[in-house]
Design brief:
nine-stranded mixed β-sheet, six-stranded antiparallel β-barrel, alpha/beta, 17 strands
Length: 504
Amino acid sequence: MQQPFSTTVGDVLRQRLAGYQEQAILYDCGVVLSVGDGVLHLSGLGRCRYGELIAFPGDIYAMAMELSEEGVGAVLLNGVNELRVGAFAQSTGRVVEVPVGDKLIGRVIDPLGMPLDGKSLDAETLRPIEGPAPQIIHRQNVSQSLETGLLAVDSMIPIGKGQRELIIGDRQTGKTTIAVDTILNQKGKDVLCVYVAIGQKAADVAKVRETLEQAGAMEYCVIVAATAGDCAAMQYIAPYAGCAIAEHFMVQGQDTLIIYDDLSKHAVAYRTMSLLLRRPPGREAYPGDVFYLHSRLLERAGRLKEELGGGSLTALPIVETMASDISAYIPTNVISITDGQIYLETELFHAGVRPAVNVGLSVSRVGRAAQKKAMRDVSGKLRLSLAQYRELQIFAQFGSDVDESTRRLLAYGNRLTEILKQPQGAPYSLSEQVVLLLLVSGGYTDGVEVSRVREFGKGLLAFLHKQWSPGMKEIDTTGELTDDLRKGLESGIKRYVASVGQKV
């Protein structure tokens, strides 16, 4: 029978530390000199380490963040309004840790491992939230595809297992939607997902959880939440805690996916703590080590060699821009760390193009190396054609006469843009993506009105699932589009086109 879980952060941390105090250990002691806004300065604690837990009377705990000759600067993890100047402080000899293991799957926890879903949690294994990134010699190339189920992403900006792909754009452009749809698409693919919510409203986190539960995705997902109501310290450690949970599965040979939503708020929380700790401000008031803040987090993603289990950790960090300014401080920092970015444009979103992926500014530096062969065969010139269409579309808006070849490219681009539109929570399988791309690139939609292209494609998928199910399953299983499969697929498309009375 499980013991009822503790209701306070102090109780949880005290219970964890109890197991390490079985032998006589000499601890440093100190006194609180000043405290305010969740940040305190202490004298003493000469042997304190960076990131170490500091204990105070009343089960109050802080994390050391500043070590100097004058003393120690720390941030409170609980008891923000309870600690007073002159309070006695004691080092614990332990860094901040988070529970890891199978018992976390399907749960919602805070960065310290306390359950937020009203159920008990009895996780026996603990792991430090900070840890070194895997060495280069222990990694292997990113060559396996991690499919998002989004046609616009999988065809033009492929993501591989072990990659770090940034999702960037203004607020309310669908960044979280892409991340959640990617999690939904991992169902049945043996990929464990960790969703880290940083500085979001509790209602938004609840919506994400409800979406995942309704789709059955919580069976392979963990949610780590530090909401806007939590202190800056909890928001600061949240992504590292989520990464530690995912790393535990990676070293066991498991493929994992982690979403950081979002690192803009993470940087703001770190800036708040740094300014209160009296660190000198730099550009946009961020401290000088804000690049290291995210680089040491994202470098922990990767794919291990087979002799080390072959596990992978794929990171999808999210960064919010202001007025579409991707040249701001934090966006440029994270862009330089990651292996590419998916840029979501506000104008496209309001125009009804969803996901609102800007092809010109989006890139995957892993590229086609992590793309299934079937997708490579049908998406060869897709990105170039769409980029040309976007440029010609701007030119054609001036009302100038265009020649026949330009008119054909505009018509093709209109249908391609329409087929790339995808509703929320409805990821496509590999075979369905291949069918839709062949449908447009083969010219089978030329006789279909642009407004009916999506409906036409939806009907074709239903027809093929019913009439050509073995072929669809073979594409999904092998990831290849052989000559026989292509002929069978084109034959099925022509039969459907003929059945609905369209001319080929």
